[in-house]
Write a structure and sequence with these properties.
The chain is an alpha/beta fold. The protein folds into 2 domains: 11-41 and 265-455, UDP-n-acetylglucosamine1-carboxyvinyl-transferase, Chain; 45-262, Alpha-beta prism (UDP-n-acetylglucosamine1-carboxyvinyl-transferase, Chain), CATH 3.65.10.10. It contains 12 helices and 25 strands. The protein has helices at residues 45-56, 71-82, 120-131, 151-159, 196-205, 224-236, 271-280, 300-306, 347-354, 376-386, 416-428, 447-455; strands at residues 11-12, 15-16, 26-27, 35-39, 62-65, 86-90, 99-103, 112-115, 134-140, 163-165, 174-179, 185-189, 212-216, 241-245, 248-251, 260-262, 282-287, 310-314, 317-321, 337-339, 361-364, 390-394, 397-401, 408-410, 432-434. The strands form 7 sheets. It has a 4-stranded mixed beta sheet, with helices on one face. A 4-stranded mixed beta sheet has the order 6-7-5-16, with helices on one face. The chain has a 4-stranded mixed beta sheet with strand order 8-9-11-10, with helices on one face. α5 links the parallel β12 and β13 (212-216). α3 (120-131) packs parallel to α5 and α9 (347-354) runs parallel beside α11 (416-428). The longest helix is centred in the middle third of the chain and has 13 residues, at 224-236. The radius of gyration is 22 Å and the shape is globular. It starts with 10 loop residues before the first strand and ends with a helix.
Length: 456
């Protein structure tokens, strides 16, 4: 089946999205009272893209129930389709679009070009798959994607004997000359810049002739929960994966089982909605919260109480209540010092929360987010300070000193997390105009509709 090319639309089939409502961008709506809202979210991007790769490499057809339909996931679909994986859309029951049946290719075929857009999962998960295909596969993406680190993936594949031509850039664009097989075996790799270097290799490793014995050689490894998510998805498909010591993972060669899998709601996309409860007051509930999960966003249940929130979980509904207001009329949000090395994707929204706290906050362990969709540390400091804030870049983090903010333009830098952070600021600061709210289509095309429903 042909999957249509994704573009950020004015109208999404599962929820209206309004990229602009002024000549300058999208005017972030102000909250005019405490919130009292229940929000349902579409599927996890991280889980959807891992399951798409595994389903394409499996020993038979798999079905993904309630997958995410967004720019990142459709770029993954298109990439796998170009390697001869087939897809069938089926009526879904999750409220955000179709389910998806994935039919692996009898033989993966390259001789194609894959557009990675700005999706780290596509540019790091698909090159090992392309190495298992016959023929050359060229990878390229958005202009900003060419600045994202790819050295771990490139050097790792070369060390495994894969012929890969990058003209010495260590970045996009590059070409993988697939031979239909990868020898595999022992590999040492520095994944300090991104845990996706590890996940990308682990996802395909069971199809390598000798599997993979991967050892991380760097001093630090960011976003470890994402590797744990990868291991969990592999084990669910019958792949033997062990973690005999910190920083080492062993995948045995063998089949990847075809299964039907339900994709959890994206808990990182829950962050702006739950943070909104603290900024605007009141409470917000996320429906469908899993009891057990490897998603990084689950850490919100422990992080937000540090800021003063009250969090409760009733069956599959997680509710965040704002703190009691201070005697001086303040929001009662506490300043915090946090090591967020495992939760880098939550940082932008948490910086917005810290900007409205009653004391300064310091976030550390997040130097790696300089290499996400944009340099998030520099971008956050620039945008908050342009609105009168006091955010200081540190070597490995940010210092946030709360002060009075004023309205003005907010640049998203084509980064969905920066765009939702601007929306949070706009809850309490009139006149915030986000230049590219459509960038939320990367993982949540329905963002503006859900945001407005929350405020209604």
């Amino acid at each position: 089946m042909q999957i249509s090319r994704y573009s950020a639309p004015e109208f999404d089939p599962y929820g209206e999205s309004r990229p602009t409502d002024t000549d300058e961008g999208w005017r972030a709506p102000v909250a005019h009272g405490p919130l009292e809202s229940v929000v349902a979210l579409p599927g996890s991007k991280s889980l959807t893209n891992r399951e798409l790769v595994l389903a394409a490499l499996a020993d038979g057809p798999s079905t993904l129930h309630a997958p995410l339909w967004s720019r990142d996931s459709e770029l993954m679909l298109e990439g796998l389709q170009s390697l001869d994986t087939r897809f069938e859309r089926m009526p879904g029951t999750g409220g955000f679009g179709d389910d998806l049946r994935v039919i692996p290719a009898e033989e993966l075929t390259g001789s194609t070009t894959i557009d990675c857009g700005l999706a780290g999962t596509v540019m790091r998960f698909l090159p090992p798959v392309a190495a298992l295909a016959l023929g050359p596969t060229t990878f390229d993406g958005d202009e900003a994607a060419r600045r994202r680190p790819m050295g771990g993936s490139i050097l790792g594949l070369r060390a495994l004997g894969v012929d890969l031509d990058d003209d010495g850039r260590g970045a996009l664009p590059f070409t993988v000359h697939g031979t239909g097989r990868v020898e595999g075996g022992p590999l040492e790799l520095d994944a300090s810049a991104s845990s996706q270097f590890v996940s990308g290799l682990l996802l395909s490793a069971a199809r390598f002739e000798r599997g993979l014995d991967l050892r991380h050689t760097g001093d630090r490894l960011p976003s470890l929960p994402h590797i744990e998510m990868t291991i969990a998805t592999l084990r669910a498909r019958g792949v033997s994966v062990s973690n005999p010591e910190p920083g080492r993972w062993v995948v045995e060669p063998g089949p990847i089982r075809a299964i039907d899998v339900a994709i959890e709601p994206d808990l990182s996309n829950a962050a702006p909605f739950l943070v909104a409860a603290l900024v605007a007051g009141g409470h917000v509930t996320i429906a469908g919260w899993p009891g057990e999960t490897t998603q990084v966003g689950a850490q919100l249940a422990e992080l937000l109480p540090r800021f003063g929130a009250r969090v409760s979980l009733d069956d599959d509904r997680l509710t965040v209540h704002a703190p009691e207001p201070g005697a001086d009329g303040s929001r009662g949000i506490r300043g915090v010092d946090l090591d967020l090395s495992e939760a880098g994707e939550l940082v932008p929204n948490l910086v917005a929360l810290a900007a409205f706290a009653d004391a300064p906050s310091t976030f550390t362990g997040i130097g790696h987010i300089r290499h996400h969709e944009t340099d998030r540390l520099a971008a956050l400091a620039a945008e908050f300070n342009a609105l009168g804030g006091r955010v200081t870049e540190l070597d490995d983090g940010l210092r946030i000193e709360p002060t009075s903010l004023h309205g003005g333009p907010w640049r998203a830098y084509a980064d969905h997390r920066m765009a939702t952070t601007g929306a949070i600021v706009g809850l309490a600061v009139p006149g915030v105009i986000v230049d590219d709210i459509a960038s939320t289509g990367k993982t949540l095309p329905q963002f503006t509709k859900l945001w407005e429903q929350m405020l209604a």
